[in-house]
Each structure stands twice: as structure tokens, then as C-alpha cells.
Amino acid sequence: KAGVTQTPRYLIKTRGQQVTLSCSPISGHRSVSWYQQTPGQGLQFLFEYFSETQRNKGNFPGRFSGRQFSNSRSEMNVSTLELGDSALYLCASSLRQEQETQYFGPGTRLLVL
Amino acid sequence: EDQVTQSPEALRLQEGESSSLNCSYTVSGLRGLFWYRQDPGKGPEFLFTLYSAGEEKEKERLKATLTKKESFLHITAPKPEDSATYLCAVQAWDNAGNMLTFGGGTRLMVKP
Asked: A65 touching B, CB under 8 A?
């Protein structure tokens, strides 16, 4: 089975711009979660989607949003980018909704200048 | 609030020198504890899931154990290819879905 794929792998933006990241889960997986990883804060949960519905949301400002499509693919959007948004954004998928192992993609490295 | 603390932050071992990594957690109710390995520039790779105190799982040179307050990842006779950051994460019953709370990780370096 193919793993979780994320596009693009690398991205450079400037402050004030917006960005959209894409994630394709493992085939058959219906839950998709997003995490932000920085050297200072480590891995932090952004949000999770299951069957096109947001199930849970972390402590991030409203500039961070996401959605899930009927084929389980997911996108996250960050508007009005700030320098502190520079990070590795990781997507993880799992088969079902509860108490499931999450499998991570390679991540999208975002640099905000 | 769920908390996960990993120690040490960094660990240097000689090839063949066994050791253990610690993961201490505070959650209202533990649904599962997960260990991942992360290589530089890559996403975390799943290693183990533990659900209840007393549970143990093994894979090659790695063995994970779980108590009511902490988990250990034992590395037996490590090789240089075991060098990576090892991440511990918990799922809690009071959180909907599959949300994971991660520790800061232990950066392991194994010298030949």
C-alpha cells in the first residue's frame, strides 16, 4: 500500500501571504490529522477530520483551517502568514475514528520570509 | 491538560551499548501510548502502540513497556542505523478522535 503523501514538499512564502497544503491518506483510511512541528514547540496537534467533519481542533488561531473531501483527501490553509508559521507540517491518517494508530506522511516544509 | 515528558533529551551510545529511553505521562484516562521514530527531514515512523499497564511489545532491537505513569523504550545492542529521534505520544479518553499529545523526543546517536 502507498503511504501518506503530502504536496508540496517544500514551500517558501512571504509574510501576509496565504498557503494551502495537501494530504492524501493511505487508501481506505478515513481519518486525517494535521500537526505542526517546530524546534521550539515540538509536534503540536492542529485538527482532525473524519468523513468530511472536523472532529477535534488544537490551540491554534483561526488563521489555520482545514477541510476534508469525500475521497478522504485533506487540505489545510494558513492565511496571513507570520514568520512563526515556519515549520514542518505533518499529515497523518488512520483507518477509523477512535483509538487508532496514525501513520504520518513526509511533511511539507514551510518557510515564511 | 495532558502532558508527556521524555528523557533524556539526547543520548549518545557506543554501538552495542544497551540503554533505555523514558516517557512520563499525565492524562485523565489513557487510551493508548505510541512510540515513533523520526529521521531528520522525514515524518515520524510508527513503532509501537501500548494500551494497558504491564503490556510489552518488541521489534528487532527495540522493546517498549508501559506502566500507569510511564513507558520505556529499551534498545538492546544498538547499531548506528538506530540513530534517530524517538517520539512518545498519548491518546486520552477525554479527547475526541485520534488526537495525539507528543513529548519533546529523545535524540539518539549511536557511534560505531
From this structure: no
**pLDDT mean across residues, chain B:** 95
Q: Please count the other Cβ atoms lying within 10 Å of the Cβ belonging to residue B23.
A: 27
The set of cell numbers assigned to A55 is 472532529
Give the integer Cα–Cα distance in Å for A33 and A66: 10
**Contact (CB, 8 A) for A78 and A53:** no
- Residues A4-27 pLDDT 10s: 999 999 999 999 999 999 999 999
**Is the CB of residue A48 less than 8 Å away from at least one CB of chain B?**
yes
Block residue for cell numbers 524517538: B86
- Would you state the cell numbers that stand for residue B36, as one nine-digit string? 515513533
- Nearest Cα of chain B lies from the Cα of A45 at a distance, in angstroms, of 7
Eight-state DSSP code of residue B80: G
A23: cell is 494530504
Cα-Cα-Cα-Cα dihedral sign, residues A57, A60, A65, A66: negative
Per-residue CA distances from A100 to A18, A68, B19, B31 (Å): 32, 18, 29, 10
